[in-house]
């Protein structure tokens, strides 16, 4: 097992106990001399010196207990265990003062001596009771022992009340024959409750030590035996000194009361340092390593621990109460956090400066990205517009390619004609007919890119326009619509191309032409005196002649004249 050097505070504590023992030994010797010089002139001086030594002895013990009580309040977390330990320290002080009043201040048989006689047994039972309650509070199964804590408290309270009310029932102390309860305690015998009282004290101590051995024995057997052996060995040493030192002409430095008190104090201190009772020790090193300002308080926000660098918020600052609900921004670079713990509250601060600067950098980056996104969006829109223009240009090029031959023919006719030419009217009529075809054919090509069908009405309007310009060539032409169906775009364009080739061949060779648009396609009827050769058309032709009438059927199928 590792050994640890004693700190300066521990050495000072031990030196004070030794000093108090030396003061008591000197006081005992002076009392012995004072008894031998009773009534002499030097007895007053010895009595004064003895009183001073007694007062110093009691002051040293009082200072040690109060200092330890203050350290317990600071080191332990607010809990039931801390309450038990503090109450035990108070009863230790009470025990020393009652002992001093009983044996030093009161006279034998006085009311004060009678009161101190009974009061002496109150801390004598309370300290072991609180020790056992503290042991029951420790460990991982403390909640299971709540009923046991209640029972122990009830038994201890019953025994204390039994001592205080002994004058009524005389079960603790009984007066001897001829004596009354107001006589000195030497004239009384022990009753049955007296033995129950001491058995209870022994049970509390043994049970508490057994719990400590059970709790601490998991880590090290040697450490587990320390609290179990400390009390009996100390009491044994006290009895040996009390009997052995007087035989050598020396006085015992410590009496039973201070021996029992500081022995119990050592066991409590061992439990605290062994972390069996939740404490605040080690927080300074922990927060020093973190370099984080922090406060630890009790549930009422009273400070229990504070780091070297204090928090911006004071203990009674309302900001701390707000921080328990949600983190609070004290300034642009500092945020206060709070958290409720099982036995108090913890507060600490966080540096928001780095996060704020990062957020500002992110905001600047977001602005740059937004600008770049705007540029990318504009570029995408331009590319989309360019793609639409390119697609439209390709479509126009496609439409132009399909009417190129007709436009070339128109250009040739325009180049050969003039107002003075004898065939000017015929060529002009042919140019107008061809231009009508170019216009309608281009329109059909553009429509086919937007939709898959061309209505019968649109196709009929194209046929009517061609018929009107055909009249300029001396042909009485007309177009009728006997259907409302929608033609496939490819089908309608093929029908219109076939119609245009047929009427170009019929122009000037027939006097009349009737075109009918029905469900199957186009049906053309023309007057024709001599047989005609018709050109190849995209649509299948069915041709018949009867009594000078030429009947042509155009269906939306590839083929030629037949």
How would you characterize the largest beta sheet?
A: 5 strands, antiparallel
Report the average pLDDT across residues.
78
Strand coverage percent: 5-15%
Give the % helix.
Answer: 55-70%
- The secondary structure category is alpha+beta
Instruction: Kindly provide the radius of gyration, computed on alpha-carbon positions and rounded to a whole number of angstroms.
Output: 60 Å
General description of the model:
- This protein is of the alpha+beta class and about 550 residues long.
- Helix content is about 60%, strand content about 15%.
- It has 17 helices and 14 strands.
- It has a five-stranded antiparallel β-sheet. The protein has a five-stranded mixed β-sheet with strand order 9-11-12-14-13. The chain has a two-stranded antiparallel ribbon with strand order 1-2.
- A hairpin with a 2-residue loop joins strand 13 and strand 14.
- It is rod-shaped and about 180 Å long.
- It starts with 7 loop residues before the first helix and ends in a 7-residue tail after the last strand.
Features of this protein?
562 residues, 5-stranded antiparallel sheet, 5-stranded mixed sheet, 17 helices, 62% helix, disordered C terminus
Offer a quick outline of the entry.
With 562 residues, the chain is of the alpha+beta class. The protein has helices at 8-36, 43-75, 80-105, 111-119, 121-137, 146-164, 166-169, 192-216, 221-247, 256-273, 283-290, 318-325, 353-402, 404-416, 424-450, 456-470, 489-506, and strands spanning 173-175, 188-190, 294-297, 303-306, 328-331, 334-341, 344-351, 453-455, 476-481, 486-488, 512-517, 521-527, 540-546, 549-555.
């Amino acid at each position: 097992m590792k050994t640890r050097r004693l700190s300066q505070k521990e050495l000072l504590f031990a030196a004070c106990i030794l000093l108090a023992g030396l003061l008591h030994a000197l006081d005992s010797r002076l009392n012995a001399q004072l008894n031998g010089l009773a009534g002499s002139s030097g007895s007053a001086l010895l009595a004064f010196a003895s009183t001073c030594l007694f007062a110093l002895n009691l002051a040293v013990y009082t200072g040690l207990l109060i200092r330890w009580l203050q350290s317990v309040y600071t080191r332990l977390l607010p809990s039931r265990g801390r309450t038990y330990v503090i109450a035990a320290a108070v009863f230790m002080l009470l025990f020393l003062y009652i002992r001093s009043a009983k044996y030093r201040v009161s006279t034998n048989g006085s009311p004060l001596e009678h009161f101190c006689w009974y009061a002496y047994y109150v801390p004598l039972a309370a300290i072991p009771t609180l020790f056992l309650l503290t042991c029951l509070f420790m460990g991982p199964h403390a909640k299971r022992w709540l009923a046991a804590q209640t029972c122990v408290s009830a038994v201890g309270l019953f025994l204390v009340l039994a001592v205080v009310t002994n004058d009524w029932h005389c079960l603790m102390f009984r007066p001897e024959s001829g004596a009354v309860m107001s006589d000195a305690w030497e004239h009384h015998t022990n009753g049955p409750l007296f033995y129950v009282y001491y058995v209870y004290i022994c049970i509390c101590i043994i049970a508490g030590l057994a719990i400590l051995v059970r709790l601490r024995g998991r880590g090290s057997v040697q450490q587990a035996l320390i609290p179990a052996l400390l009390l009996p060995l100390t009491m044994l040493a006290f009895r040996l000194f009390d009997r052995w030192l007087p035989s050598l002409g020396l006085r015992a430095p410590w009496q039973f009361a201070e021996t029992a008190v500081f022995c119990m104090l050592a066991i409590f201190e061992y439990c605290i340092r062994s972390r069996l009772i939740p404490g605040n020790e080690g927080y300074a090193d922990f927060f020093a390593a973190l370099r984080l300002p922090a406060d630890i308080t009790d549930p009422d926000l009273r400070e229990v621990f504070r780091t070297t660098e204090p928090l911006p918020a004071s203990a009674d600052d309302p900001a701390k109460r707000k921080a328990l609900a949600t983190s609070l921004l004290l300034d642009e670079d500092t945020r206060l956090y709070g958290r409720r713990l099982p036995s108090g509250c913890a507060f600490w601060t966080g540096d928001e400066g780095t996060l704020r600067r990062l957020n500002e950098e992110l905001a600047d980056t977001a602005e740059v990205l937004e600008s770049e996104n705007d540029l990318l969006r504009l570029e995408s829109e331009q590319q989309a517009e360019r793609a639409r223009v390119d697609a439209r240009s390709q479509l126009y090029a496609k439409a132009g390619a399909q009417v190129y031959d007709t436009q070339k023919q128109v250009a040739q006719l325009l180049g050969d004609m003039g107002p003075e030419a004898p065939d000017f009217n015929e060529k002009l009529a042919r140019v107008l007919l061809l231009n009508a075809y170019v216009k309608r054919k281009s329109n059909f090509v553009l429509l086919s890119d937007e939709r898959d069908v061309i209505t019968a009405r649109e196709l009929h309007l194209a046929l009517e326009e061609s018929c009107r310009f055909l009249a300029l060539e001396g042909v009485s032409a007309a177009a009728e619509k006997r259907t409302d169906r929608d033609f496939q775009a490819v089908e309608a364009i093929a029908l219109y191309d076939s119609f245009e080739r047929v009427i170009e061949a019929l122009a000037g060779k027939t006097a009349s032409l009737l075109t009918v648009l029905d469900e199957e396609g186009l049906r053309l009827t023309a007057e024709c005196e001599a047989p005609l050769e018709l050109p190849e058309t995209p649509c299948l032709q069915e041709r018949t002649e009867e009594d000078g009438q030429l009947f042509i059927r155009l269906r939306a199928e590839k083929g030629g004249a037949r």
